[in-house]
Amino acid sequence: MYDVAIVGAGPIGSFIGKEIASLGYNVIIFEEHSEIGNPSHCSGLFSTNIFDIVGKIGILHPAKKAVIYAPDGSKLRIGNDKVRGYVVDRVKFDRELAKMAGAKGAEIHLKERVKKVKYTDISTSKGEYKAKIIVGADGINSIVRKEMGIGAPKILGAAQIIAHSHLDEDTVEIFIGSSIAPGFFAWRIPLFDDLAKIGLASYKSSWLYLKKLMKKLKVQPLSISGGGIPINTVERTYARGMLIVGDAAGQVKATSGGGVYPGLMCAKCAIKAIKDALERGDYSENALKNYETCWRNGIGKELKYASYLHRLYTKFRDDEFNKIIKILNDEKVIKIINEEGDIDYPSKVAIKIFRKKPSLMKYLSIPARPYRKRI
Ligand SMILES: Cc1cc2nc3c(=O)[nH]c(=O)nc-3n(C[C@H](O)[C@H](O)[C@H](O)COP(=O)(O)OP(=O)(O)OC[C@H]3O[C@@H](n4cnc5c(N)ncnc54)[C@H](O)[C@@H]3O)c2cc1C
């Protein structure tokens, strides 16, 4: 009998594994792939807050500035010399975290797919196991979530390429507009040398729109990847002896698609709830409910706000995007963004911008959308 079994050695599973194993508990982590972090679909732009939690791992270079392109080609330039985030080697990042978990004593089983979980039993492609607590950190198609009978979050399709495409190393580019990426946005992120990750997410075919963007930017793909971004949290994240965390629970910022910071913040709540449950020997639904209360009262508020902003965003037409960028292109607004903007907490800066530019208030109404009920 293991104390904790974790399904998935992504960043969230490995982080939880490391922290619980360092408390002296028996931890086993199952990863279906033969290598940690591979394949990776992530664009690897991480806020500085992430490194305060896990340490400075996998960093390629700092990101300080952003250029946001409106559909009409006009630009909004934000940022200055302050480091806002880092571009990471995502494979290395995931591997470093898994290595830390292993160093603290967590057993990591690679190439072992979890096929079924029924508290306290775990059935994998290689054998049968038992654990007092089972954690689903198994991404968007979480098997643990399915076994808990919880519905999936809404997923936005994403496509990305790596290509030769020169841009300043400390600058990322964002392209908005329903003709560019309906419902979301496209990005160009410098990697190293003259390589960049270029991708987008969309409610329509992301591949089709990415092909159009490739043509516009005159780039040829060296490699291609695809993935899914959850844009709402699921209705419940705990059951008797079981938890789901990270993408499995839809704990991703709907404004940016960034899931690593919110996933880690929720993982902290999971670690506390698991520790308390193991100390008391109480793995009941009631004991693990503290996990959900913790994250919903913490980063959950920001995720809810991000979902609200996302719903507004999906409504805008290209002419409205052009007008919004024009309104934001004001040195007082840019000063607010530069001084107070935090990638992980957009609500703080958004409220200040609305105060400075009341003309933006007219865009604050929510359309009826088919997925609205789930959020
Ligand atoms: C195109 C794209 C770009 C992104 N860019 C960013 C970004 O720039 N910044 C950011 O913060 N976030 C970004 N994200 C989101 C980010 O990648 C995720 O939020 C993050 O990886 C979630 O971590 P996780 O550990 O919850 O899940 P995952 O990273 O998905 O890890 C889950 C792990 O579980 C394993 N697994 C699944 N099922 C099983 C099973 N049955 N048995 C055993 N193992 C299993 C998988 O193989 C995987 O290793 C991006 C996502 C996409 C699609």
From TrEMBL:
Taxonomic lineage of the native organism: Archaea, Methanobacteriati, Thermoplasmatota, DHVE2 group, Candidatus Aciduliprofundum
Xref: Gene3D superfamilies: FAD/NAD(P)-binding domain (3.50.50.60)
The record's GO molecular-function terms, alphabetically, read: FAD binding; oxidoreductase activity, acting on the CH-CH group of donors, NAD or NADP as acceptor
Q: What is this protein called?
A: Geranylgeranyl reductase
Q: Which InterPro entries match?
A: FAD-bd, FAD/NAD-bd_sf, Geranylgeranyl_Rdtase_fam, Geranylgeranyl_reductase
Q: Which domain of life is it from?
A: Archaea
FAD-binding domain residues: 2-167
Question: SUPFAM superfamilies under this entry?
Answer: FAD/NAD(P)-binding domain
